[in-house]
Amino acid sequence: MKFSGSHILSISQFDRSDIERVFEVADRMAPYAHRQRVTKVLDGAILGNMFFEPSTRTRVSFGCAFNLLGGEVRETTGFETSAIAKGESLYDTARVLSGYSDVIVMRHPVSGSVAEFAAASRVPVMNGGDGANEHPSQALLDLYTIRKELQHQGRSDLDGLRIAMIGDLKYGRTVHSLCKLLCLYRNVTVVLIAPTELQMPPAIVEQLRSAGHTVLESDVMEGSISKVDIAYSTRIQEERFADRAEADLYRGRYRLNQAIYTRNCEPNTVIMHPLPRDSRSEANELDNDLNDNPNLAIFRQADNGVLVRMALFALILDVVEQVDKNARDVNWYTERRF
Ligand code: NCD
What we know:
Layout: H1 16-28, H2 30-33, E1 37-39, E2 46-51, H3 57-68, E3 72-77, H4 90-97, E4 103-108, H5 113-120, E5 125-130, H6 136-152, E6 162-166, H7 173-182, E7 189-193, H8 202-210, E8 214-218, E9 230-233, H9 244-248, H10 258-264, E10 270-272, H11 298-316, E11 327-329
Parallel strand pairs: 2-3, 2-4, 4-5, 6-7, 6-9, 7-8, 9-10
Antiparallel strand pairs: 1-11
Helix pairs in contact: 1-11, 3-11, 4-5, 6-7, 6-11, 7-8
The structure holds N-carbamoyl-L-aspartate (NCD).
N-carbamoyl-L-aspartate (NCD) binds next to helix 3 and helix 7.
């Protein structure tokens, strides 16, 4: 794909060489993300960061990624403080905000809304999550993390990957985008573990099968996570249910803790989660007793989000080759934390 000036709305836009390109640029962002070097390549550029649904990681890491490239961030959070609450259309909001920004990231509760917004925008728009539909930057950082974790184990190839996805696979947009992304690889085994009512949408299962992948569906976790490289846990997406009582039917159904991991998983199985994990006792999908497990990759995964989002900005705004020019070492104290 041509990155420069493009919207990033869906994983379907990418082919395998595009993914390699994103990962290669993400690797090159490490000195900046890790606070060893400073670049001002986006000096003067403005990101419109518009989040109409709760977010911590995605919003802040998109903002940090832009700041780390030297740009400025303007933010709107929630409908209440936005003119959308006064009845403004997505079309008008897009026309106006794209006059104030060089690139826009948007999260919105309605599937397809970010694409609708992008159609009216005069600048590139990135989908930070549209309802239960897609979350492309999360899928990219997830696969980037999988690749890094496997490389750490001495495996260089994503072909032949075995992954279990656990939890709310119906409404979880991160797993929808991740499955679409895995379709670009070969010979993947995907174990889908969910209550029957919350299984992966059939169209996505079909896409995986058409890509030649092995898809196994189950509603029990123990036993189903025994032969996987990656156990990818997800939260029950309560905000997509009719009410709390409906979400309560499924909350806490799958709980991974150290004892279950030891009993079921291979010693190197990597544990992932897009976060936030729901740590309330009635849910607790990933127990805190996994925090010292070296295969718990959830915080490395969140750190990787900055690298991947920096790469997307650098590619879309066409500055990849300029990032290292005009860069310098940091001149403040930076404890080693990566
Ligand atoms: C996810 C999301 O918003 O889709 N979070 C994230 O962006 N890292 C997953 C979730 O909220 O459960």
